[in-house]
Design goal:
The protein has twelve helices and seven strands. The strands form two sheets. The protein has a four-stranded antiparallel sheet with strand order 4-3-6-5. A three-stranded antiparallel sheet has the order 2-1-7.
């Protein structure tokens, strides 16, 4: 199947795969920042447009790094490759198999690493004069954006869902009875919540994560489910509850109360944010300069 080309830079193509890669990086970044999944989904169109721009910017930086012939030594490349080996438990063969499963050779993978190292060195050059934020900068940002650092109440929970086979009263009664039996086994210590979820839950979370929904805040689940999850005592199996999805039982395994952090608590986080923002601006300005000189076509 021919690769879909979404843009060209100086006549060289940018495939859809490159944009998809940037999109996944953006999604991962916002997930790490704690953005709820539903908000990420709502902004997907914006993120896709940003991912395209980042893919174009990356291509411009690659071309500039090649033009400058930024050196990457064999030792540097070997060290980078070794970090990936360690991610596979030190099993080099396992890494090689994973690389080949992606349709790449080890040599091709190392070329990707070399290219990434060249870009990183170019970015370090571009950002050499990016200023470190002063204490006044840090304090001013905190005061202006304090509300953005407020954390909300959140809980860590597992659930088991049993869906009725139909809308008839007897279908609902059968589903509820099945879940009651499951609940009794858990409460009586005959099996674990995770094992029952894997064996019987009609939610995908059961099969893949033992019923775990991860951490979630208010507004991320349907109201009846949320009400129980936030009021339930820790490590207690809930009574059966009904939502539009079917019948559930929940166990809450963790909870965190929201609060407004002090400047001392997030001082380093704010400092790092401002410094990375300054570096990001320097890179954006440089990419804009490169783009002004380039022939970029989208579509």
């Amino acid at each position: 199947m021919a690769e879909t080309i979404v843009a060209t830079v100086n006549g060289e193509p940018i495939p859809q795969q490159a944009v998809d890669f940037e999109l996944q990086r953006l999604i991962h970044f916002y997930q790490q920042q704690g953005m709820p999944e539903h908000q990420i989904r709502q902004q997907l169109d914006t993120l896709r447009a940003r991912a395209l721009e980042q893919a174009i910017g990356t291509k411009l930086l690659i071309d500039e790094a090649r033009r400058l012939d930024i050196p990457v030594s064999g030792e540097e490349l070997d060290a980078q490759f070794e970090t990936y080996v360690q991610q596979f438990g030190g099993d080099r063969e396992k890494l090689v198999k994973a690389i080949e499963a992606q349709g790449m050779t080890v040599e091709g993978f190392k070329q990707e690493l070399r290219q990434g190292a060249m870009i990183n060195k170019l970015i370090d050059r571009v950002c050499a004069d990016a200023p470190q934020p002063t204490e006044e900068d840090i304090k001013a940002h905190y005061e202006a954006h304090k509300d953005e650092y407020v954390t909300q109440d959140r809980v860590l929970a597992q659930h088991i869902l049993v869906k009725p086979d139909g809308d008839k009263p007897e279908d609902k009664a059968a589903a509820k009875a099945k879940l009651e039996v499951i609940r009794n086994r858990i409460v009586n210590g005959e099996s674990t919540f995770a094992d029952e979820a894997k064996a019987h839950s009609d939610c995908p979370s059961g099969k893949s994560n033992g019923g775990s929904l991860g951490w979630f805040g208010r507004g991320m689940m349907v109201k009846p489910f949320e009400d129980v999850a936030f009021t339930l005592a820790l490590n207690t199996v809930s009574d059966i509850l009904e939502t539009q999805f079917g019948y559930h039982i929940i166990v809450k395994t963790g909870e965190e109360k929201g609060h407004t952090p002090t400047l001392d608590e997030i001082h380093d986080k704010v400092r790092d944010f401002l410094f990375h923002t300054a570096r990001g601006q320097a890179v954006s300005d440089h990419v804009a300069e490169l783009r002004a000189k380039a022939d970029v076509k989208i579509g």
